[in-house]
């Protein structure tokens, strides 16, 4: 009911006398179990609450496969009605080139400034005071997922921080369990490194490197510690040959691996497998060392089409994505946190509660995606995966990392 | 890589086209179980097993249930045959919000395939004919550029093509980018180097006398093409059709970039099914989907294998 | 030849002279008919290539933009480990792929050419993988080479516990894992070309060598292969064009891993352009690829079309 009223208000706002039914092609790369279920909530909401229809443009294989398709469509003059991006600096250029729809009026009418928490997510959508994207969820990388079953088999206590995790590893090995599950894709290894940097070097050092691009800090002692821990992780992950992140998660679910450093989306997989947080698996935010969440997430952007009817529909969709009902339905399915602090998730478990507490307590950092360009991120990914799959020394990797940071902008 | 070029070359004096029809030419093996024969068939059978292994694995896996797959190895024959994976791959597998499996893309693929094959072959046929029989100053230069084009990785041309389609579309006042027409044009462009080469070499092998006689008789450019050249082109047309059907059917990149979500070809759905890991990788569904997608080109190959070699003999070896 | 007669009948009243009727039309039609090809060659291939080269001197990110940076992209390219590894991998894969494809293709063709019973069946078996895309090829072989379910797992099940064959997870031999799949997909076509070439060899040659008592293998090496030089040139060019484009197979089978040990140049281009949103870097890498193509191709084109006109 509330939703309908809001939408009516919005319709009046954008000046369309009557909502014309528009087929909205929405492109995204959410195709894994929990993701697909979550995006279906958006589609339902659009189909049920408006006259428009959701035409699903899913392209599997992640952003690297989907992004060129999206960008081609936009520069080719046949853009989709909306598309998903990790927000932050990825879309900067499209905004500067005037290719994306200005959503400022929607944001003002809906009061996004007051409801979006943490505000950094809205800031990431904002260029020169204008809002260009609709953030839909909060994802944080800072989780260590542990299989209670695996530790029981090995006869050791479930660790509560990284040091204990490393200490418990030999017992797991003895029981034939790989201590750390790590997929073969570079972003997973690089992501784990990012988590370890925040957890072990501390917020300050991490911000100095990622926000201020201070290469000296990256060369410093704090980071040496991180790289040493990362080298430990390299040893701990030896023996499990999987590619995809959810295959690695699956190893934790089955108890053939002790733990996995992965973002909160892994929780969707635990849920699909029917596991309960606290009983079957344990989660440690910030590896249990530094309880803090980096808050990145996904956002939807809306290309400029020049067609007022489509524009009206785009703005309706933007408002709909942030409406409380849709936020709850979507984030429950995806295992992420809602971007508004004023809603309650229906299915709150142990881990989600801890995430929400950290969020409420303002223990948050911006996500690496918001601070670094995609180019720098790719360079880091390449370096980390090279390190992780070879016998490169800690000194070498640290120096090369410092050089990447030096050249970053 | 279906853009295989039968790059020309042999300036052989003989006529291998007819020769191929006569059958093998090598030394005649002895008809007994000689050591040579055992070695010959032994080698062929062993190699054939290597080539068949993946097909066997795909077939066997596609009719196993998931528990059986996890328990056994990939080569073990199925204990219990189930066609559920095939049904799921065809009609139920989810990609994003849609749970219609591959069936959604099949007709899209057909709709893309037919005009693309027709247009690309027509253009290449006429170009090859012109290049072999109606050369003019500079025609070879353009041809050389075209051949170099056969070596360019497609991905490099992605954005230039987007911009060309957009600008030409704007110029003509039609929507080329994102439309079926645009995609058909793109397939024609990228099929052109190899196909043109194929037709050029083939027509060059048709005796000059025939052509001269027709000209003397007053037949023009199109007259000679339609009345003399075309009726003689069956072998090379078969090769062209096979290559294009395979290439266009298997194409993912152009299909996903130059169309819209509602007209994605089957390969895009295949990618979505195979790359979407819904919990546990459903290998059986993946394999069934792979086989279903490969069915059309596989069928074409199994049916026309003999014609293919004959056509290659005509187009590739003859120059 | 009914057609020729028909044409002759229609043109009967004309004098059989060198005078060319409709001279203008005749000269116009070929040019008109070649327009689509010329447009493709000039606008798409030449234009697209120049466009790529020009933008390789810019700092284009997500969108192509003209902010010139000179040779910066090339500097960075050649100081990037991944690019160097890519080139080394491609060279390794290229050499082995070229040699093995030629040897296997020729051997199979020679075997099939020896009046083998069931030639059709064998030929179809060798050729069918070519009908499947590299994506499919990569997936299937990824699975057959899977250490737990595939070959390694089976051999271990048989009792040879220490047997290790895990190419896709071993940085040192991962390129050979790709090679096994690549050869499976591509040798059939080369075999067909070779077979067609062998069928073009005159039967008298065989008779002559048999009379002279030259062993079969020697006949192949000393007589047949030199005679098939043009067929080999065709095959080499074909294989080479495929090697340079190597991308889909890598993505499907290894995604460039483990680590960066199976990266290839085409993948470097793709990841730079679309993953890193650094078009300039991707264009610089593709320019280097194009340059190597031209270096390889120009001598060949000169041999093939040369003598008549500059190429």
From TrEMBL, chain A:
This is Probable sugar-binding periplasmic protein. It is found in: Periplasm. Belongs to the bacterial solute-binding protein 1 family. Its main location: periplasm. Part of a binding-protein-dependent transport system for a sugar. PANTHER family: ARABINOSE-BINDING PROTEIN-RELATED, BINDING PROTEIN COMPONENT OF ABC SUGAR TRANSPORTER-RELATED. Keywords: Signal, Transport. It comes from Wenxinia marina DSM 24838.
TrEMBL record, chain B:
Residues 106-304 form the ABC transmembrane type-1 domain. It is found in: Cell membrane. The chain crosses the membrane at residues 38-59, 112-131, 143-165, 177-199, 220-243, 285-303. The keyword Transmembrane applies. It holds the Pfam family BPD_transp_1. It is a multi-pass membrane protein. Keywords: Membrane, Transmembrane, Transmembrane helix, Transport. Belongs to the binding-protein-dependent transport system permease family. This is Carbohydrate ABC transporter membrane protein 2, CUT1 family.
TrEMBL record, chain C:
Residues 87-302 form the ABC transmembrane type-1 domain. It is found in: Cell membrane. Signal peptide: none annotated. One of its GO terms (cellular component) is plasma membrane. The chain crosses the membrane at residues 32-57, 90-112, 124-144, 173-198, 219-244, 283-303. Keywords: Cell membrane, Membrane, Transmembrane, Transmembrane helix, Transport. Pfam families: BPD_transp_1. One of its GO terms (biological process) is transmembrane transport. CDD domains: TM_PBP2. It comes from the Bacteria. It is a multi-pass membrane protein. InterPro entries: ABC_transporter_permease, MetI-like, MetI-like_sf. Belongs to the binding-protein-dependent transport system permease family. This is Carbohydrate ABC transporter membrane protein 1, CUT1 family. It comes from Wenxinia marina DSM 24838.
